[in-house]
Amino acid sequence: MAKDPSKTEKATPRRRQKAREEGQVLKSQDVPIAISLIAVSVILVFYLPFVFKKLKNYVYYIFSQSTYLDISPLIATSVYIFFLLILPVFLILIVVGTFGNVIQFGFIFTAKPLTPKLSNINPVTGIQRVFSFKTLFETLKSSLKLIVAVAVGYYAVIHTLSGFSSLSFISFRDEVYLLARDSVLLFFTFGLLSVPVAGIDYLFRRWEYEENLKMSKQEVKEERKQQEGHPLVKSAIRRRQREIAMRRMMAEVPKADVVITNPTHYAVALKYERGKMHAPKVVAKGADSVALKIKEIALESGVPIEENPELARTLYETCDVGDYIPEELYRAVARILAKIYRRRGELP
User: Fold this and answer.
1) Which has fewest Cβ within 10 Å: 27, 65, 202, 268?
2) pTM for the predicted model, two decimal places
3) Which CATH number, 3.40.1690.10, 3.40.50.720, 3.40.640.10, 1.10.10.350, labels domain 245-344?
């Protein structure tokens, strides 16, 4: 169950990522154990013949020496044989154990789980853990493991004892073979029986993990605010952005060649640099109060103002600031610019 009754909402992706960064991941210790037991069985099946061969050569080497053995070569050979037989199995088990964890939660590197927590030494929290559902589950699981181990061990011992009567009629080599075979079979049996235990434990860990990650409605709301930004802050940012954009636009009005207006509703400032622009460009536009401000700045800066209601409305509706005017308006704008150029004396 969730620790807090108010935490009824499933964890968000951000909550899961934060938990992962803190080392809180879905993990069952029984999964790598089960995989390791089965892997040991499979490894021994293929590796034992090699082990027997090396051990036989090692024994022949010892007995083939003279009565007075040179201790240094013997120690070196013994160490070599030991590592040759043990190290490969040990390394494979490390790889298999790592794989058993990686398939559960992937690769993760963090030292946060090692950080001491005061809650771990809180006696009240400790008592709650003792009488928790998790403790009950662990107790039942350990009891099940013990029962399985005792049962498998009992039948393995009974099977081995039943074969003692025939051991006197077989060679030492065959005795070793039978012992190795029974050991491999024992490991494999433990591995197979560990699979359902690991499956149950994994399902419990997943349920526990999801419960611990659950969030309250307020936490979900606060996280959404943090990701999207507080509405008041966002509104203030948008207002500030509009103010900056407005100042930049108004600063372009004195550089315009003409302001085309619909006397009181629309104003569009155009700029055209012959030889540099393929068409006139809208450097400012506005409606109502903004249009009045554009006209005011244009009058102060000496920018010509031309009244053309239909053209002003069309430019306002079809063009944004920074756009070049569409081709269908070339002729109408060209007439206005030509009139202004003549007024300036730039055209005959």
Assistant:
1) 65
2) 0.51
3) 3.40.1690.10
